Fold:
Amino acid sequence: MKISTLLSLAGLAVLSHGAQVPRDYANNDYYVLHLDRSTSPEQVASRLGLRHEGQLSELEHHHVFRAPKFDEDVVKRQIQERKRRKRDVGGSDPLDSILLSSKQKPRMHLEKRMIPPRPEGLPVVRRQEAAPPSSAALQKQAEVMKTLDIADPIFNEQWHLFNPVEIGHDVNVTGLWLEGITGKNSTVAIVDDGLDMNSNDLKPNYFAEGSWDFNDADAIPAPELSDDRHGTRCAGEVSAARNDVCGVGVAYDSRIAGIRILSKAIGDAEEAEAMIFKYQDNQIYSCSWGPSDDGRTMEAPGILIKRAMVQATQKGRGGLGSVYVFASGNGASNGDNCNFDGYTNSIYSITVGAVDRTGAHPYYSELCSAQLVVTYSSGSGDAINACYSGHGGTSAAAPLAAGIFALVLQVRPDLSWRDMQYLAMDTAVPIDDGVAEWQTTTIGKKFSHTFGYGKIDSYAMVEMAKTWEKVKPQAWYFSPWIHVKKNIPEGKDGLAVTVEVTADMLKAANVARLEHVTVTMNVEHTRRGDLSVDLISPSKVVSNIAVARRLDTAGTGYKDWTFMSVAHWGESGVGKWTIIVRDTEKNGNKGKLVDFHLKLWGEAIDADKAKPLPMPDEHDDDDHNVIQTTTLQASTTPIAAGTAATSVKGNPSDHPERPTKNPAKPSGTEKASPSGTNEAQEATSSASSSWVSWLPSFGASKTVQIWVYGAIGLISAFCCGLGIYFWVARRRRLRNDSRNNYEFELIDEEEAEGLNPGEKGAVGKKARRTRGGELYDAFAEGSDDDQFEDYRDRERSHTRLPGDDSEQYVVGDESDDESGDEKAERKPLSGPR
Ligand SMILES: *[C@@H]1O[C@H](CO)[C@@H](O)[C@H](O)[C@H]1NC(C)=O
Ligand SMILES: *[C@@H]1O[C@H](CO)[C@@H](O)[C@H](O)[C@H]1NC(C)=O
Structure:
């Protein structure tokens, strides 16, 4: 074998492991450059005086370059210089091949922010501690344990798997186990703060090949900091083995991988690598984290991470698509909502919220129109027992769902990432808690912003999967940007804008029926938290795509922010879509709806005509006058053509001053016009914030009607426009990314309500005893999770020496840690940081 072949094989081996060399951010700068095919990375490196470090994981044409540490973004500067010179002297230059440049800024290590205390005045509703288990249920439980040879000492406490007290409030999985469906040959990766692969409960199922530590740049994602316990707990819920240790995972024969990213600052480059790490082998990525749930943060993943996720849904799992599961977030009591988090409102993630063992909505679990389903977690005085008995929050719900999806993949490994969403949606069971509002959707499902389509029923989901006919590929229709530029009246009335989508448009776009709907919008406002937005479909299903957030005082409004809804699943999409933007507070803070862009995603009519979505671009939403590349490729119709051509001729790059130029309806009926505004405000002044009461008065004649119709016969103009567009788009891509700067926060797993002291103390003790000190104590009590007074009292008497607390814990000194009305939040002392 030639030496060069050997070398390239070695190179491949290194590359296939993701992070090849530990990146030394202390002494170097790193740039990720997206290059076109015309120039090699080596040419670019030598031109810029950087060192080429290799491709960024599997992301084609994305390369990592290293430079000596320097404050300035040297690549950006050189690109700008080159542009200036190009205007004067022209010629060619390797820099012309750079489509995107992103200087990596590792985010500072963040303290894990504690879950907010219970809001004052919210009563603690505890489940009846004395309620005895049903003897029939206990008998069934015993039979299951005997038949399956389950000897795990805390299985009896794992009510989320089998609940003998609140009958029916569990994930209904034992019937599947009895059929041999236990997650065999399925793989879940826990993207988190590490995974204790040496614990006796995880060792048998640990999947080393799919694991990586992006914080320490090695192959072993073992927990290292004293508070690296979160990932191990999540992993236990999925894949704790059936043995004599602790309990079992919901998919106890599945493989479990650990991808460690949360323990130190990392750049977008590493996060992108993590999100697609070994995506042919890791099938499901379970993510119990996200931007802060403080009720004022509004953050989305950076472009490299977005691209990684899009690529994973197209190429991961042999083209079936990686399945991402995200916890909805724990900020409900801060008024937070999962549509303000760009991970949970991505169409590529299944967002999972929580329901507690009494069937109630836990006060922390965030609501939103992007939430697909919920599953069991902490609340009403109890939590999830996955070796450690105080696991909870939406952090515990996501892995439970991921484990159930692993059961589905055992039976049907051929299902796509969208099939998984269909199955979850279709088999979820609505929950009647007497509080949540439910709407009946167009396809006869119940949807609630509190619980999505309801709780996952493992048995029902796998049963349906067995005979599921796979859906056709994805297709999409993007409306042009709808330019509104109208003030939003303060108060309940709001500003309504209607867009009509015709059957022909969807046919031309190859869209048969809807799945996700997204709305990208620009709203100027001096107090962002005052705003709310509803999206109403042609069949009058209402999505609260944005809600007012009392703590969000940002003066920035919404900037190209994309909201998402799953409530319109199965609709045809044909008809009038309305958005209503409200300024809910009369406080002198005012704003204006600038423009928005409706995107209907769904199943293709003709699979042969379907194409993969082009990689997202950081400036996808900049060209407010241009139909996006993606649409051009999807709908090769006069509609897109006419619009694109018109727009390009208009004012393609100017963000603030966008001409209101929508193609007129061919028949000459109404079209968008600024004069419609007063009428709209008048019309909607009769609307109230309750959708029920304004629906009847919601008339076509009363709202602004912006008819979006395609002009026919503009194909040649389109071609011309397309050329200009690509030229403009390419130039624009050279700009630097301004969105790769965001922070992470663990969605912490506990709520500050009292646990059932008797049970917890007993279980915790037993669990520890069983481990015999062999388990990494990620599973153990004693950490940030330990904030239950009565629980602690109990614990002390069992296992801790008096005064132990003060040695292990410090009472939080940050405002974040202000104690709630009942319990002091505590946080662990820093580990070896
Ligand atoms: C739960 O699983 C059983 C089989 O074990 C099945 O008969 C039942 O329909 C499932 N769902 C519910 C809600 O009970
Ligand atoms: C296990 O899964 C892999 C890929 O996911 C597949 O190729 C293989 O056939 C499966 N094996 C079994 C026994 O199902």
